[in-house]
Protein: Aspartate aminotransferase family protein
Amino acid sequence: MNSILQHDLNDFENILEKAKQQGINFLNNLENIPTSNKNKIDPKRDLNELGLGSEQALKEFKERLAPLLVSSPGPRYWGFVTGGSTPASIVGDWLASVYDQNTQSVTSQGGNSALIEFETINLLLQLLELPDSFLGGFVTGAAMSNFTCLGVARQWFGKQFGKDFAKNGISESINILTATPHSSSIKSLSMLGIGSQNYTVVNTIAGNREALDLDDLEEKIKALNGKPFILISSAGTVNTADFDDFEAILNLKAKYNFWWHIDAAFGGFAAVSEKYKHYVKGWENADSVTIDCHKWLNVPYESAFYLIKKEHLNLQIETFQNSNAPYLGNALENFNYLNVLPENSRRLRALPVWFSLIAYGKEGFCDIIEKSTLLALHFGNALIENGDFELMAPIRLNNVCFTLKGEENQDKTLQFLTKLNDTGKVFMTPTVYQNRKGIRASFVNWRTTEEDIKIVIEEMKAVLDDLDY
Ligand SMILES: *Cc1c(COP(=O)(O)O)cnc(C)c1O
Structure:
């Protein structure tokens, strides 16, 4: 063994202790660490001939690299839809690295870490009150989950014509209907060879909605003349957290032949609260569902899962099996994650979620969900009270979409946002909603409090004064 590695091995406990210290210094200071910075490094550092050892590497990380990092797991990072990490989720994440399993199937790797993944998916189904007619697994994020689900949908579509697209390639044009898809679903269409422009846009409900207009949907279905299609529906659009009407979609399922996918990346967690579960009523009837854990479940990146109905397992295996690796056995007889999703080797990605669900239970997450939605309303009210802003859409759940008052102030809105983000006190993202430039604040982080909203409103006032608005 190389002497520096040997030294590290002997010093392992001390090294981990120092890493823990570095971590806890960051976590205990999250509120004061800026949400943005302009620090840079020259990323062309020379590789050492002789290694420095972990302790020196940690020192260099602290001095050179840590200053590049922002307080994105902190309470005032409201950009995109960004969750933080609870204590239990960090424990699970650290231990997933320490145990370093390659989670595939029961006993195939010698161990049984897949049982932990099965158990975690089962706990999630209980949290979300979904039936166990779904089979699920972990992937890196909702984008990869959408890809997985739509990959199986593509195979289903071919089967309606007696074709095996996975084996022979796509030989029929695939009909996709959707109203307000997330960009990652469109990217999936591109990666799946369907084509990122080859989908039909269904109108949204009139009057400030992003949900499918059911009449227009049915008209567009009829225009397909009985041909099958794939419906990409939404449980929580990113701008306004709007939901499609799943009970109405279920009624269409009785009349027409289609694969029903729901992107519920963050909105799926509405199911956890008595107050909001009506948004997802009927969603258990979908063929596939995408859900992120690194957003509202507040576990570290990268964590999401897909749910696909068990009845489609054959199609899923046809799509993702490693068919030319005989040592992997018969994919149908021996369930193995590497035959049902894009990646082969995978870390024990379920563990952070398992720790979170065991540690905080249903009530812990119900609290996080309901507190986030209250904070969103609270922030919306503060914006209205302030008088310089207007909401671009009603606040249905946890996202607030707003802008400076007055159509003529679109560019000023972006100027304002840039200056506000530069303060490092808060981070929000620019958006375009109904052809108008705006700002989006998303409440997902378990640490955010009313005090944070006060701090942000004060900053916003100061920036406006500065801008001479
Ligand atoms: C965030 C998000 C995605 C993409 O998720 P990643 O985890 O970033 O891959 C997809 N759909 C919706 C609705 C989202 O909010």
In short: The mean pLDDT is 96. The two ends are 65 Å apart (CA to CA). Residues 388 and 405 are 6 Å apart (CA to CA). The first strand starts at residue 134 and ends at 139.
